[in-house]
Amino acid sequence: MDALCSGLQPLHIGNVSVGFPVVQAALSGYSDWPMRVVSRQHGAAYALCEVMLDRFLVEVKPRHKNRHFLYISDDEHPVGGQLMGAEPEQFTAGALRLVKAGFDVIDVNFGCPVKKVLGRCRGGFHLGQPAAALEILKRTRQAVPDSIPVTVKMRRGIDDSAESRDHFFSILDGAFAAGIAAVTVHGRTVQQRYVGPSSWDFLKDVKRHAGDRVILGSGDLFSAQACLDMMRQTGVDGVTVARGAIGNPWIFQQARALLHGEPLPAAPTVLEQREVMERHYSLAEQLYGPDRCGPLMRKFGIRYTALHPQGIAVRHAFTQVRGRADWLAALDQWYATDLPGCFPAAEQHAGTNNCGS
Fold first, then answer.
1. Of 46, 69, 113, 206, which is the most exposed, with the fewest CB atoms less than 10 Å away?
2. Cβ 251 vs Cβ 241: under 8 Å
3. Which one of 5, 49, 112, 121 is the catalytic residue?
4. DSSP 8-state secondary structure symbol assigned to residue 322
């Protein structure tokens, strides 16, 4: 259990003791097993897998090529599985599949603002229909064993209308009444998608309304200081780092230092970055195999370059990665000499489309 010097309390999600209240969010296309392990090795006490469709979970076959979707290692508990869908029956079946796979927490996604997701009555679409949303949450909570907490991820509403705000609080209160252990709230509306500031004032209102019930905040967390600021300014019980953790697992170490009253650690040096990038690639190769690994790791390599002092020039090398040889060649070219690293700017992350931010 973390003893925090900042006046903040260790995080609990139902009967799951997380401790350190800065966790890694679910990130579509990113938060697979290798990313979660790297984040955990750098201080994240809890992480969520990338969101999965209920229908997919029900239909997916236990074949080697599919194992990465539900892969969990013994050393990454507690770990959360995130679920998205449209129909209560499939939601419960999908949730039970995540339970069977070994996830410690089941998280329901009512926050994704991607257009094709909304068009299929998934994700943030549910924030506009409180009755249907609560039916999904009630059935999921009833289906999942009592020992496994169920949580939900929401945005602050479809838009900024009074009706949307009313719907949000109806779902929030109904979720807790149904036995949901914690609610993660993103300070943007579904209509905003990933554009414009996240409203921390709204998070403050939500936490005041929720009282002792567990609220996690999300949105615009691109630095360790922002994580601490969100908790102090809004009163939320913890925060989930989404886009700010891609290619920057050091954000968790840095947040730990600040929450324990220590100075902000320096940005990782170039050689420290290289060590983690080599490890990340090896983990991905272990999970996906050498033939599939390269193209999947390309997007991570591009993100890591935001910490390199010559990031713009380095970025191009990772756009060309096809396999291990290309990855190592890029490291040998740009990460062979130690130099001070830099903190990535939030602007470099703007506009990314994923369901976890």
1. 69
2. yes
3. 112
4. -
Is 112 catalytic? The answer is yes
- DSSP at 343: P
CATH number of 11-259: 3.20.20.70
Residue ranges per structural domain of the chain: 11-259, 270-334
Q: Give the separation between CA 194 and CA 191, rounded to whole angstroms.
A: 9
Which residue has 């995540």 as its token pair?
98
62 SS3 class: coil
d(CA 312, CA 126): 40
70-99 pLDDT, tens digit per residue, is 999 999 999 999 998 878 888 899 999 999
Burial profile 38-68: b = 16 or more Cβ within 10 angstroms, e = fewer: bbbbbbbbbbbbbbbbbbbbbeeeeeeeeeb
Alpha-carbon torsion, ordered 303, 267, 287, 49, to 10 deg:
-80
**Beta strand pairing call for 22-24 and 79-84:** unpaired
